[in-house]
């Protein structure tokens, strides 16, 4: 009987597990090679990132971290790398804001080192110097996105109220 109680207790415990990490999409462009190799290498590097998640079963979510890195020498594009680093995560017993935080910040934090390594490898294969992206604070990015969403919703609610009066 104690085993049954313990098993029932385990069902209510929150569970989180990484099930798989993979590259979903990868693109590398070096539109001005080989001429760009003759210039002094002092690039301006721009990083754009985005996250998305999809529920694939009751307790499984796919989280996709999309990164685009553009390196320019002045107005000349040296290279563009786009990677979608994805993972399948088991999430059970976590709901509401905690689930949003898990999928929007914690999972991308797990995926980022893999995406960074993929980008560095492909940049190297393109005959460019190594590119080690600085760490990203996904908790702060998630908090900003949440705040922006709340402000937009508050603005729309206020706009809707003013139109009804």
- The N- and C-terminal alpha carbons lie at a distance of 63 Å
Number of strands: 4
Percent strand: 35-45%
How many structural domains are formed by the residues?
1
CATH topology: Bacterial Protein-export protein SecB
Shape: flat
Helicity level, as a percent range? 40-55%
> Helices and strands: which structural class?
alpha+beta
CATH architecture: Roll
Average pLDDT reading: 90
CATH class: Alpha Beta
N-to-C order of helices and strands: HEEEEHH
CATH superfamily: SecB-like
Largest sheet data: 4 strands, antiparallel
Q: Can you describe this structure in just a few lines?
A:
It is found in: Cytoplasm. The chain is an alpha+beta fold and 165 residues long.
């Amino acid at each position: 009987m104690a085993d049954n109680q313990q098993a029932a207790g385990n069902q209510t415990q929150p569970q989180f597990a990484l099930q798989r990490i993979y590259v979903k999409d990868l693109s590398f462009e070096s539109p001005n090679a080989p001429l760009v190799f003759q210039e002094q290498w002092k690039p301006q590097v721009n990083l754009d990132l985005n996250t998305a998640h999809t529920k694939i079963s009751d307790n499984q979510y796919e989280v996709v971290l999309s990164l685009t890195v553009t390196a320019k020498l002045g107005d000349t594009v040296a290279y563009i790398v786009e990677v979608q680093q994805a993972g399948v995560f088991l999430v059970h017993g976590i709901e509401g804001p905690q689930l949003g935080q898990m999928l929007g910040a914690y999972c991308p934090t797990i995926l980022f080192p893999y995406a960074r390594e993929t980008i560095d490898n492909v940049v190297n294969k393109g005959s460019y110097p190594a590119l080690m992206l600085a760490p990203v604070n996904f908790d702060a990015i998630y908090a900003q996105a949440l705040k922006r969403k709340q402000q937009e919703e508050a603005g729309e609610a206020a706009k809707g109220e003013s139109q009804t009066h």
